[in-house]
Design the sequence.
C-alpha cells in the first residue's frame, strides 16, 4: 500500500500494536471457550473476567455492570430497544436528539414503527441540546433519554452530567453513546449520572467488532438475543475472547494516554494548526461544531460553493484519508442529518469535510492536507457555477 | 474505488471546464439540494457546436459526465448533439454506480436544454429559465450512513 495520511480516526483507528500483541495468543494457543469446565477453559474465563475488571476501571464502574458486545451499534441497540421493551408498563416514549449516530436514530425509527413515540430534540448552531427543551420533552410515560456524548461528525460535546441529573430528577433512564469520547476524554459513569453507556473498541485503537455496554446495577432492560447464559444472561453467544482481550488492552493504553496531558495537547495543537491553515489558505470556509466544547481531535469544515466528494477524491489521489458530510459519499442524496440539524443549507452541507486525528497523527499528515487541499479547492471552485455567481 | 478508471481520469484531467461568457445557448439543470447542478454553455456556428463548456457543482460523477458530454457535442450538428443519450455517456465511462446514474441524465438534459435555449434565442425569444429538478426524480431510499 502507498503511504497514507490518515485523518479519519472518527471512522476507525489504527489498532495499537500492543493490542494486536495481546490478542494474538487467543487466536492460537488460548483458543478455549471460557464456558468450559476444564482448566484451559477456566484460564480463558479468568482472562475475560480480568478484561472486564479493566473495562470497569476505565469507566469507574463495577465489573458486574460491564457487558461485552460486538461494538457501538449493538450497545446502542441494547440500550434503546432493551430499555423500551422492558419498561412498557411505564410507557412508550423515548427522547433522543436529531444528531445521534444512525445506530440510535434508526433504532428509534424502528421502535416508532412498533408503537413507541420518539422525540428528537433539536440542537443549536453548535450542535448542543437545549436543557429547557429536554425538560419540556419529558413526560410521565418517558422511559429513556439517549443523548450522545460527542458527535462523530462535528465533535460537539453535550452537557452529559447535567442531562444525567435531569434524567435522575425525573426518574427516567439515561443512556449516552460515548463511542467517540472513549479514549479521548475521561469517562466516569458515576460522575456523569448515566444508567447506560455505549463504547466501541475500534474507535480507541482497539480491534473492530467488539464493544462495551455499561448497564448500571438495577436498570431494567431486555436482552436482544436469546441463547446461552453468557454475560449474565444479558448477551447470549460465546465471548469474542481475542476481541475482549484486545479491547481491555486498548482501555489500559488509553488510560495512560488520557493521564498524559502533553500527549492530548499535541493532538489538539495539530488539529488547531490544520484548521487555522485551512481558514488562512482557503476563503469562504465555515468551521462546524462548538468552538471549545468539541473533541480535540475533530475538525469539520464547510468549504462553500463546492461539493465534498471531489475534494475527498483529490486528497485520495495524494493518499489523504478524510470523510465528508456530503450525500455523494454515502449513497444517499441528502447530506448529513447532523449538518442539517445545526442549520447548514443543503449546498453548504454537501461541501463539508471532516478531519479526525489520533495519537498517530503527525505534522506531516497536517502539512500534506494544507498542501493538497487548497489547490483542489481552487480547481473545483473554478468549475462551480455558484462560485462564479458569488464573485460576479 | 467505486468509480471506473475512465471516470477517475475524466475527473482528474477535467476538460472543458468553465464558462463561455458570450455563449449562444446555456442549459442550466439540477438542484443544489440534491447536490448536483450543471450549467452547460455552447457556441454555435452554421448549425455546428464549435465550443462547449460546463460549470458543475456536484460529485465526481457529475463532473466527469458533464465534461464528457461537452466533449461529445463539440463539432457536432444540433441534430447529432440531440441524439446523445445518458446511456452513451455511461457506456463511454465504463459505467457508473447505480446511485450516480442520475448525473448522466443531468448531463444529457443540460446539453438538450442548451440547444433549446439556443433555438429560442435564434427566434428572438427570452432565454430558458433554470430547470429545477424535482427531488422526487431521485431515489431516497438509501440512508445516509455515517461512521
Ligand atoms: C457515535 C457513534 N456511535 C456508534 C457507532 C457505531 O459503532 P460500531 O462501528 O462499533 O458499531 C459509531 C461509529 O461507527 C459512532 O461514531
Sequence:
Amino acid at each position: 500500500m502507498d503511504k497514507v495520511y490518515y485523518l479519519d480516526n472518527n471512522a476507525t483507528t489504527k489498532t495499537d500494536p500492543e493490542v494486536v500483541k495481546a490478542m494474538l495468543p487467543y487466536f492460537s494457543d488460548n483458543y478455549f471457550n471460557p464456558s468450559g469446565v476444564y482448566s484451559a477453559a477456566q484460564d480463558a474465563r479468568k482472562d475475560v473476567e480480568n478484561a472486564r475488571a479493566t473495562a470497569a476501571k476505565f469507566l469507574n464502574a463495577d465489573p458486574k455492570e460491564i457487558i461485552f458486545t460486538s461494538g457501538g451499534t449493538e450497545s446502542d441497540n441494547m440500550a434503546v430497544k432493551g430499555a423500551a421493551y422492558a419498561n412498557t408498563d411505564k410507557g412508550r416514549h423515548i427522547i433522543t436528539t436529531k444528531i445521534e449516530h444512525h445506530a440510535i436514530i434508526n433504532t428509534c425509527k424502528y421502535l416508532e414503527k412498533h408503537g413507541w413515540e420518539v422525540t428528537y430534540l433539536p440542537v443549536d448552531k453548535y450542535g448542543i441540546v437545549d436543557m429547557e427543551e429536554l425538560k419540556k420533552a419529558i413526560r410521565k410515560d418517558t422511559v429513556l433519554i439517549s443523548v450522545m456524548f460527542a458527535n462523530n461528525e462535528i465533535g460537539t460535546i453535550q452537557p452529559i452530567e447535567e442531562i444525567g441529573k435531569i434524567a435522575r430528577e425525573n426518574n427516567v433512564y439515561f443512556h449516552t453513546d460515548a463511542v467517540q469520547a472513549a479514549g479521548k476524554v475521561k469517562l466516569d459513569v458515576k460522575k456523569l449520572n448515566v444508567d447506560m453507556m455505549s463504547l466501541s473498541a475500534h474507535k480507541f485503537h482497539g480491534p473492530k467488532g467488539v464493544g462495551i455496554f455499561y448497564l448500571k446495577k438495577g436498570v431494567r432492560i431486555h436482552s436482544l438475543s436469546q441463547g446461552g447464559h453468557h454475560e449474565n444472561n444479558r448477551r447470549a453467544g460465546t465471548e469474542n475472547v481475542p476481541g475482549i482481550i484486545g479491547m481491555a488492552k486498548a482501555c489500559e493504553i488509553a488510560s495512560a494516554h488520557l493521564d498524559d496531558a502533553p500527549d492530548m495537547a499535541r493532538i489538539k495543537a495539530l488539529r488547531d494548526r490544520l484548521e487555522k491553515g485551512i481558514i488562512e489558505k482557503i476563503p469562504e470556509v465555515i468551521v462546524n461544531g462548538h468552538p471549545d466544547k468539541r473533541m480535540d481531535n475533530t475538525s469539520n469544515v464547510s468549504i462553500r460553493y463546492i461539493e465534498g466528494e471531489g475534494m475527498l477524491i483529490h486528497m485520495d489521489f495524494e493518499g489523504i484519508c478524510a470523510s465528508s458530510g456530503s450525500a455523494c459519499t454515502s449513497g444517499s442524496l441528502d447530506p448529513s442529518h447532523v449538518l442539517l440539524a445545526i442549520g447548514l443549507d443543503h449546498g453548504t452541507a454537501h461541501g463539508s469535510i471532516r478531519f479526525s486525528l489520533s495519537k498517530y497523527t503527525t505534522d506531516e499528515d497536517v502539512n500534506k492536507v494544507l498542501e493538497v487541499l487548497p489547490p483542489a479547492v481552487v480547481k473545483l471552485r473554478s468549475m462551480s457555477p455558484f462560485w462564479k455567481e458569488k464573485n460576479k | 474505488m467505486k468509480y471506473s478508471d475512465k471516470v477517475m481520469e475524466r475527473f482528474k484531467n477535467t476538460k472543458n471546464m468553465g464558462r463561455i461568457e458570450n455563449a449562444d445557448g446555456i442549459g442550466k439543470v439540477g438542484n443544489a439540494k440534491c447536490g448536483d447542478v450543471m450549467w452547460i454553455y455552447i457556441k454555435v456556428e452554421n448549425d455546428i457546436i464549435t465550443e462547449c463548456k460546463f460549470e458543475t457543482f456536484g460529485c465526481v460523477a457529475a463532473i466527469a459526465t458533464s465534461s464528457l458530454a461537452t466533449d461529445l457535442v463539440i463539432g457536432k450538428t444540433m441534430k447529432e448533439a440531440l441524439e446523445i443519450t445518458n446511456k452513451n455517456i455511461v457506456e463511454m465511462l465504463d459505467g457508473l454506480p447505480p446511485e450516480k446514474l442520475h448525473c448522466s441524465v443531468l448531463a444529457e438534459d443540460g446539453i438538450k436544454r442548451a440547444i433549446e435555449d439556443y433555438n429560442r434565442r435564434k427566434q428572438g425569444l427570452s432565454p430558458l429559465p433554470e430547470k429545477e429538478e424535482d427531488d422526487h426524480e431521485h431515489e431516497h431510499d438509501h440512508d445516509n450512513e455515517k461512521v
Observations:
- The pocket of pyridoxal-5'-phosphate is lined by residues A 71-73, 76, 101, 103, 148, 152, 177, 179-180, 200, 211; B 147 (CB under 6 Å).
- The two ends of chain B are 18 Å apart (CA to CA).
- The interface with chain A takes residues 8, 11-12, 14, 17-19, 28, 32-37, 39, 54-63, 99-100, 138-140, 142-147 of chain B (CB under 8 Å).
